[in-house]
């Protein structure tokens, strides 16, 4: 049970740390380079990040659900739901913006491209909040487990 709790906490911590880094450092830095350059950098970053973050969200959620099923408290289910929500949120809410940003028909230096990148950052911040909430729930839960 504790190993599942630790895996869930690690996955949530890595996810939230990466998400926060993207929101506070990577995306603002790319936007300073101009819209066309920002979009050129965003595409490969998105493709690499999507695999990593989806894997962490799924691993963390499943581990927390497993811990809950094996008798850990309700907080593990709550954390699993928070972390797990990033997957449908990404697929339903963010994916249309991602698809447009990846579209070959998008003028890379346009105001539309800049607006889409700004929208993407706001939507990505929701993922940072959800994953950080999950991580916080897990850390607090772990601190009670090892007393």
What this model shows, in words?
With 147 residues, the chain is mainly alpha-helical. It has helices at 2-31, 35-69, 74-84, 86-102, 111-145. The protein has one domain (2-145). It is 87% helix and 0% strand. The model has no long low-confidence stretch (mean pLDDT 95).
Task: Offer a quick outline of the entry.
The protein is an all-alpha fold. It has helices spanning 2-31, 35-69, 74-84, 86-102, 111-145.
Form type: elongated
| Record field, number of beta strands | 0
Count of spatially separate domains = 1
Mean pLDDT: 95
**Low-pLDDT residue spans:** none
Q: What about the largest sheet?
A: none
What fraction of the residues are assigned to beta strands by DSSP? under 5%
Total DSSP helices: 5
Rg is 17 Å
Give the topology string: H per helix, E per strand: HHHHH
Structural class: mainly alpha
What is the fold's blueprint, element by element?
Layout: H1 2-31, H2 35-69, H3 74-84, H4 86-102, H5 111-145
Helix pairs in contact: 1-2, 1-5, 2-3, 2-4, 2-5, 3-5, 4-5
